[in-house]
Specification:
The protein is an alpha+beta fold. It has 7 helices and 18 strands. Strands 1, 2, 3, 4, 5, 6, 7, 10, 11, 13 and 16 form an 11-stranded mixed sheet that branches. It has a 5-stranded mixed sheet with strand order 8-18-17-14-15, with no helix packed on it. β17 and β18 form a beta hairpin. The radius of gyration is 18 Å and the shape is globular. It starts with a strand and ends in a 5-residue tail after the last strand. Belongs to the FAH family. GO terms for molecular function: hydrolase activity. InterPro entries: FAH, Fumarylacetoacetase-like_C, Fumarylacetoacetase_C_sf.
Length: 284
């Protein structure tokens, strides 16, 4: 099952066409993603019997982020061995967790305005929680996944490491547009091997990151078990699972995004996002 956000309405993508969920269900389910995540098991049962006969064609620029308004957004640092090595930091023995604020979520296509500073890219697989998860064993972790989508954990590195204590991760990663996601939310059953997906990104079609999600130090089920052992994961919550090697600050010399460049991010079986970087106004 592929879910899309078409003009701010929840839709099923079937054979390249969009089926509006609220209309097709005659109001049984609303046009809001968050409402659907709260009733995820019922929704999945209903969606089995929907076909694309009454679907409509759509354009990529009509798509928004295929998520609701999450109450919690988790992000995992240093979760690919290659990325940990390129930073010069030790491989963590437990997940390194921070957050991004929900106001930075945007869709899979369009312009992203860059703040002044050093804006870096981080291609990521994003997990959306379906049924509430609390103290979940690793073996049951995937039972709580509504779907997977493509994400970018864009980061302004100057603020992120600003002295005296380099701990502004959440703010530096939450400028408007710094959490693009899409183009679809894909349920785990659509993948032959959901723990082993190709991921990468390019700048002006020049590859800068490439890996497989099987390289994650802490796979998805382990992340869900770890996080849910500390606090409940709620329907619609997001987990940015980490980025592979190849980020800009690890280049010699460091290389950051420039106005006019086009950032393309993809994950096997989900699709691609494409964003043009636009210069923002200098701070007064």
């Amino acid at each position: 099952m592929r879910l899309i956000n078409l003009n701010n309405r929840l839709a099923l993508e079937i054979d390249g066409r969009a089926v509006d969920v609220e209309r097709a269900s005659k109001g049984m389910f609303s046009a809001e993603f968050q409402d659907t995540f709260e009733r995820w098991d019922d929704f999945r049962l209903w969606a089995r019997y929907v076909d694309g006969v009454n679907g409509v064609q759509f354009q990529p620029d009509e798509l928004g982020a295929p998520v609701g308004i999450p109450r919690q957004v988790f992000a995992i640092g240093l979760n690919y061995r290659g990325h940990a090595e390129e930073t010069g930091l030790d491989i963590p023995d437990t997940p390194m967790v921070f957050t991004k604020f929900a106001s930075c979520i945007t869709g899979p296509y369009g312009d992203i305005t860059m703040p002044p500073g050093a804006v870096d890219w981080e291609a990521e697989l994003v997990v959306v929680i379906g049924p509430r998860a609390e103290r979940v064993p690793v073996a049951q972790g995937w039972d709580h996944v509504a779907g997977l989508t493509v994400g970018q954990d864009l980061s302004e590195r100057n603020l992120q490491v600003k002295p005296p204590a380099p701990q502004q991760f959440s703010l530096a990663k939450s400028y408007p547009g710094f959490a693009p996601m899409g183009p679809a939310l894909v349920t785990p059953d659509e993948f032959a091997h959901p723990d082993d997906l190709e991921i990468g990104c390019s700048i002006d079609d020049h590859p800068v990151q490439h890996a497989r999600t099987s390289d994650l130090i802490f796979p998805i089920a382990e992340l869900i078990s770890y996080l849910s052992g500390i606090l409940p994961l709620l329907p619609g919550d997001l987990i940015f699972t980490g980025t592979p090697a190849g980020v800009g600050f690890a280049h010699t010399p460091p290389r950051y995004l420039e106005p006019g460049e086009v950032l393309t991010t993809y994950i096997e079986g989900i699709g691609s996002m494409r964003h043009r970087m636009v210069a923002g106004q200098a701070q007064q």
